[in-house]
Amino acid sequence: MSKKKEKAFLIPGDKIERLIDSNEGCIASDRITVDGCKVGFMYREEPYQNGNPDSGWRFMAGDESDEYMENPENHSIYLVNTICNYDREIIPFLHSAPGTAYIRNENGELVLDEEWEVRED
To answer: Which one of 10, 66, 94, 117 has the lowest number of neighbouring Cβ atoms within 10 Å?
Structure first.
C-alpha cells in the first residue's frame, strides 16, 4: 500500500495571512497551491453544506485538463482566505452570487465569464 505523498505548498501554512473575514471553504487545484499559478478561472456554485461551511467557490489556474481534475489528488479543500494569499486579485469578486464565474482575460485581468454555465451532474 502506497502512502499518500505530502504536498509541497508554495506558501507554508505559518505564512498565511488573514486577508478576509471568512471561515468558509473552497476547492482549489494544485496548479495554484503547489505550482504557484494565479487563479485563471473561478466559479461559484451553490454551497455544499455537509457540516462544514462551504463558500461554493472553486479555483483553478485555467489550464487543467478534465483528466487532471478527475484525479482527487490534484485538488483539495482550503479556506477561501488561504487562496486569497495565493492570489489577492480574487478578493473583490468573492461576494458574487452562486452561478457566477470569472476568467482571466488576455490582459491578465479577472473578468466575468458570461459564457460559463453551471454543470448539472
So the answer is: 66
